[in-house]
């Protein structure tokens, strides 16, 4: 059986090395399992302390996806096994969300350049890996989305932080609708830095191996790092040299940005929800699909995503992960998450029975349960050491 993550080191012309981490579960579009998270975390830690390693490359196997999300089947099994026992009893969910969020935060704060090849499908947990990379690269096949409303979850893995930093109110629209972004809109939304034709990826890798990386080739593994700014610049130069000459055309999010911002203005979620719902028969298929996805999705997820963005708007990334961890564990016992996975992946009837069934039932009082710590009183937050806390 092939390893779920493949690791390879390639030596550049001057003796410095590049670390390649390949998500290797193409049959599930490289969906992240806990084993994959742990393998990535251990290897990234080793590479961080390797003075002879200049940069890290994250990519996905199979050509169709970087990563289409997390291991929903594994989470579903754990929710079924611990039904009625409370969120803290579900050890698998506790471990999965804690270690996934730690990995994502590690990438955000990594001491060396990280290139993420975000070609093909990038969703959910894949977005969590990609958004923290220092050099995020998209292609003509890139499709990025946070479609958790369709499975009774919310845009986690730091999604509340990311969506709050998109232009205007576009982040809220994407959370409520799960709408997909192409390469052009990925730039507009601030989650891509460079682009490359997928056919040119091998040539870029060859160029990276000819790059005169700064550092100590074969140097001691004493934690000393190559000069970060120099290698960031060298990676940027290589990527720019391989960018397509053809200009990007505005994607649907940018084309409809004024309308999206108008629809999502204010702080009244029912009004915003109704305004988006009115797009279901719109002539533009992207807008119509966005509305249809929202209307078919979990009303509770819509309320939770909205409230999380409000609560975390001015919070640090570490605090956002801590808040999302509590909310994610609450989702494992509230019902809609398990029901959404059942309808989409287990029974595949695509007829989820959401509870609450309407946004009116999923009101501001109802959503507060997602912010109550599930662990025993007096116990520290499992992610307390992730980064600086805020008052």
TrEMBL record:
CDD domains reported in the protein's UniProt record = crotonase-like
Identify the EC number(s): 3.1.2.4
Catalysed conversion reaction:
3-hydroxy-2-methylpropanoyl-CoA + H2O = 3-hydroxy-2-methylpropanoate + CoA + H(+)
Q: Where is the Enoyl-CoA hydratase/isomerase domain?
A: 19-371
GO BP terms: namely: L-valine catabolic process
Q: Does the keyword Mitochondrion apply?
A: no
Question: Under the GO molecular function aspect, what terms does this record hold?
Answer: 3-hydroxyisobutyryl-CoA hydrolase activity; lyase activity
**UniProt cross-references to Gene3D superfamilies, sorted A to Z:** 2-enoyl-CoA Hydratase, Chain A, domain 1 (3.90.226.10)
Keywords per UniProt? Hydrolase, Lyase
Is this entry keyworded Lyase?
Answer: yes
One Pfam family here: ECH_2
One CC-aspect GO term: cytosol
Task: Identify which top EC class this enzyme belongs to.
Answer: hydrolase
InterPro entries, sorted: ClpP/crotonase-like_dom_sf, ECH_dom, HIBYL-CoA-H
Q: Which PANTHER family match?
A: 3-HYDROXYISOBUTYRYL-COA HYDROLASE, MITOCHONDRIAL, 3-HYDROXYISOBUTYRYL-COA HYDROLASE-RELATED
Q: In its UniProt entry, what is this protein called?
A: 3-hydroxyisobutyryl-CoA hydrolase
Its taxonomic path starts at: Bacteria, Pseudomonadati, Pseudomonadota, Betaproteobacteria, Burkholderiales
